TrEMBL record, chains A, B:
This is TetR/AcrR family transcriptional regulator helix-turn-helix transcriptional regulator. It comes from the Bacteria. Residues 34-53 bind DNA. Keywords: DNA-binding, Transcription, Transcription regulation. It holds the Pfam family TetR_C_43. Residues 12-71 form the HTH tetR-type domain.
Length: 201, 201
DNA sequence: GGCTAAGCGGACCGGGCGGTCAACTTTGTA
DNA sequence: TACAAAGTTGACCGCCCGGTCCGCTTAGCC
């Protein structure tokens, strides 16, 4: 099905550099990042970019696919955690932290072309829904929120923080904590929220 | 100081139509809105736009100024409300509701040019800080948040909702409620949040 | 009604964007 | 080492954007 062509050594090197540069550039400047800048950052010509990815959207899709698969792995491992509430928070923390300007990339559907991306996105979505359901039955979050709510809300901190000139590097995490507290059922409101990494470790 | 030139009748008419069109267009499409589209929507030529406002930024500034002044008036009247927590929530509700894509317009400082805008923005900021302080002393919100936090967080709902294909029209309000709950001090978490308009009415 | 200045509008300009292409270089194999 | 296929490149194209300009229209005063 997926016919992976064999790349020449230099081509593989360039492709890796390109993906790394694109990841950084998209993270910093969002969809505004220009292909020319990405090429320059990768140290290759603009034409080479389009040889590897026929359109800018395809390049973006490759970057997003990486992120989504990483998040999927994390979500999967968190599904086995004992504390469902802490697991959900840790997932939200990791997701919000790593995808800076790419925030809501999983929402934009690719017009039937990138079947693989859509599939990965759907799979991640399922895992998130499961995380949320577990947190709900554990009494850690309200009953009236669903997976989509969590996805949208966990993206909010980075989004708004991107507007302040030079934000303290932990500002987004403070806001995530506030939002997570808002998701708790009435009356359940522990003081600090646990440090990231505490659940899977 | 402010030397308001006298406009000819048709010019005044066009200016009004232009501002209305720009307000709608910016609200719908954010900063991406093009001057040509705004001109078309207003039923005037593109050149006329630039006669009234020398740059696109100036046009945006005029639209933003309108919004800021309206919000300032609201904030001022809410400062006298009995229930400081409800007053803050109502302000956040109104601010988030009316400024769709313009969300964080008050943050972007104009490079010393639009003194009037910067002044209005500073004044609004003061009022918001006062609203927040009152809510804090009333025990309605946590002690560890400030005016900027509230500004950023109240903008979050519209921001994230703009990513979902066709959102239910009240979705942003649900999210605002969640965020507001997250702002409450520990343990204080009433069930429903009051309907908008209940405080000033 | 006639005159003049204010206002109007669309063709036009420069710049940046995503994307193409044909000439050139590199890789890997026999 | 010779050579064909694979890969690279930057000049180039068309498009859209913000902004300019100048010939035309119109409002308002005498």
């Amino acid at each position: 099905m997926t016919e992976e062509r064999v790349l020449r050594a230099d081509a593989a090197r360039n492709r890796a550099a390109l993906l790394a540069a694109a990841t950084e550039e998209f993270a910093e400047r969002g969809l505004e990042a220009s292909v020319a800048d990405i090429a320059r950052r990768a140290g290759i010509g603009k034409g080479t970019v389009f040889r590897h990815f026929p359109t800018k959207d395809d390049l973006l899709a490759a970057v997003v696919l990486d992120r989504i698969e990483a998040l999927s792995a994390l979500a999967g491992s968190l599904l086995g955690a004992a504390d469902a509430g802490a697991a959900l928070l840790e997932f939200m923390d990791a997701a919000a932290g790593r995808q800076q300007q790419l925030d809501l990339s999983f929402l934009r559907e690719s017009g039937a072309v990138n079947a693989r991306l859509d599939e990965a996105r759907a799979s991640l979505f399922e895992s998130i829904v499961a995380l949320v359901e577990r947190a709900k039955t554990a009494g850690a979050v309200r009953a009236d929120v669903d997976g989509m709510d969590v996805i949208l809300l966990m993206c909010a901190p980075n989004h708004v923080v991107s507007f302040v000139p030079d934000p303290s590097p932990e500002l987004w995490r403070r806001y995530l904590g506030i939002i997570f507290d808002g998701l708790r059922p009435e009356g359940a409101r522990p003081l600090p929220h646990p440090a990231p990494g505490a659940v899977t470790a």
